[in-house]
Amino acid sequence: MHTEPVMCQTSGIRDACQQDSAGRLPPYDGGMPTRADPATLGWASAAVRHVARVTNMLVAARTFRVVGGDPREVAALTELLTGLGARSAAADADADQLWCLGDPEASTAAVEEAAAGRPRGHTLLVVDAGRHVPAVDEDAFGPTTVARPGVLGVPMTSDDVFLVSTGREPEDDPAAETRIRWARRSMPVSRAVAAELRAGGLLRGTRIGVSLFLEPKTAVLSLLLQDAGAEVIVYAHADETDDAVAAVLRRAGIPVYADSAATVAEQRTLALAMLDARPHVLIDDGSHVIRLVHQERPDLLPTMLGAAEETTSGLRPLRVMAERGELGIPVVAVNDARTKTFFDNRHGTGQSTVFATLDLVDGFRSPLVGGTAVVAGYGHVGEGAALVLRALGFRVTVAETDPVRALQALFAGYAVLPLGDAVREADLVMSATGVRDTISVDVLRACAPGAVVAVAGGVADEVALEAALAAGATLTVVGRKAERLVFPDSDAGPVVLDRGGCINITAAEGNPVEVMDLSFAAQLGAVRMLVERGDELDRAVVPIDPAVDAATARLALAAFGAAVAPVPEVAAQPVDRHPDVRTTRFGDPT
Known about the structure:
- By secondary structure, the protein is an alpha/beta fold.
- The strands form three sheets. Strands 16-15-14-17-18-21-20-19 form an eight-stranded mixed beta sheet, covered by helices on one side.
């Protein structure tokens, strides 16, 4: 089932979208929908993706207010933002974002009103989303500074107000220091947990090896660990290394074993060099370094407290090793933390992979608007990708081999088909399984000509490109990180993005900062577990302490401005008394 974007009510459309004296529009509250025309939907999609790209911020859980604009544009933008999980701000409440579509004077008044009396540290993002002409007069706010490429600060107005223009491309300057500062301000949960670790002195003298996608958010985690007293060592794979960020960490005194130009052999040497620094704890993504220490440096295992693993695909081989009795250290399953999986996998990876895919597509063909998409796999990542695609106007079909998950997809309103059948008429195919050869040679052959194939998350060879090339297929570059695959018996084939790589990492800046804040807070909680009682844990994949989830979620609720419910008090039960489990349904028990 496909739900079209909802517009303003068909009757009295201008009354329903009437602006107030400050140029604001009330939130749309339902009514009979009409369809957004493809051009308007395409404009809204491009605007939202631009803001996400230059800010690396999440759409979900944020509040917004739209200022000015044509009612149909307002309705299309509002429907898209709410479909992605944002909320229209109440009239008497602060908004996280002001989307300005109309008169610059009305926009200036709305910004000044929103900035006045704003709590310190509460970021206001002002978006100039004027469709044809600018809707914000940037000069009205005094001199601007570059907060990060594509984002301007306006210190004369407030240290917490920032401007983004969807009509301006970001600067080419890597600006690693500013990007790291930007990430840090949006990671309050990790900052709070690290502050507790610093105050307790728990990490002093502990060597921690960090093997994650090396970009600004990972840099913040590494610096927080260092500030908490740990000795930090960093490794990253070549295709996951931002050299400018690596340089900032080196200047901060953190050894970094990473180079974006390193060959596979050189990456192995770098990873072993990091291990030879003898870390007590490893923080890994994909468990490649955890497995490498078992394969190449087993003598280090008795000196290690353990490791923390970030991903579903990384935990799978570790669980096999544990079943075989081959796992030599405890590994905390950070991926399975509720504050990681429910948010990083679903909302973070869902948004970042779909947005990165469509950004690449815009570079070599007309935008995909309201087309047909197939999501292979309906775990948390697939669920998130399907949600984002549907919000963007796609008709979504899910291909899932687990019958229960397939039924979940059906109940969520998606068509469900076998993958080989689903791809025949799809404009976009996203694999979200983390399983090799999901997009097999047969599936590639079945894809509609010109269909775009991408991987959300993923493992090596999730798209069976090597097998396809061995079968005689050829690849032709059609755009940035985009190649058309053509088999010998055909003159047309699908376009594969980044050779099946993890698209949000290799073609973008990874997951949004707010969800990585939650994931890294869970990582810090796992580090605490290992330092405090790693010697007591089984040499197995161990669950994260539920208290870590609860503490992380409470800090995040406060950071997002939500009221935090107090922890209920439970009456103490005398140790010598069992709870009364008798039923009272049939009267008081005797």
